[in-house]
Amino acid sequence: MESVVDAELRRRLDAGGVSYCVVGATALAVHGYVRTTGDVDLLTMDERILTEEFWGGASVKIRRGAWDDPLAGSVVWKSAIQHDVIAGRGYAAQFALQSAADNERLGCRVATPLGLVLMKLEAGSAQDLYDVLALMERRRLIDGAPWVPEIARHLPQLSAGARDAWTRLQSLTKQG
C-alpha cells in the first residue's frame, strides 16, 4: 500500500507544502483501539486549505469552525473512502501535528496516542471521551501506556473545557 491517504489528495497537500497527519479512528486503530469509521481524518494547522483557491477547482466541501471551536474548519474530500481534512487550532492540534510519527504501514504520519488524547479532550464529545478511555486501556495492555502521566504536563495549555473533561475522566477511572 502506498498510503492510506487518497493519492490525489496527498498530491495536492504535498504540492501545497501542507504538513498533515492522520488522526481520528484510523489513528486510534494504529495504536490498538479499533472502532468503526467511514472516513479518514487528516489534521493540519494550515488554514489555506479552507479556501477554494487552494483546491484549484477540485470538488470539495469547505466548512468553517466557529470562533470558539477547536477546529478552524474542515474540508470534505470525496474519494473511494471519504477524507476529512481538519484545520486545527490551539495547543492540542499543534502538539498532535508536531509529535506525529511516520507510519510505514499507512505510508504517512500518524498522531501519537498522547496527541490524540489531547485533541479528543479539546473536542469533548461523549464519543471523544470514550475514545480517550478506550485508547488508554488498550495501550496499558499493549505497552503500559507510559505516556499517560505526561497528560498532566500538557493540561495548562488546554482549554478549561478540556481540563474539566480530564478531571471527569480521572474520577471515572478511580471509581472502577
First-residue to last-residue Cα separation = 41 Å
Output the number of helix runs.
8
Output the structural class: alpha+beta
Mean pLDDT: 93
Main β-sheet, spatial strand arrangement = 1-2-5-4-3
CATH architecture: 2-Layer Sandwich
Helical content band: 40-55%
Outline: globular
Task: State the low-pLDDT regions, or none.
Answer: none
| Count of extended strands | 7
Write down the Rg. 16 Å
Polypeptide structure, described:
The protein has 176 residues and is of the alpha+beta class. The chain has a single domain, classed as Beta Polymerase, domain 2 (2-Layer Sandwich). The chain has 8 helices and 7 strands. Strands 1-2-5-4-3 form a 5-stranded mixed sheet. A two-stranded antiparallel sheet has the order 6-7. Strand 4 and strand 5 form a beta hairpin. Helix 5 crosses helix 8. The longest helix has 18 residues. The radius of gyration is 16 Å and the shape is globular. The termini are far apart.
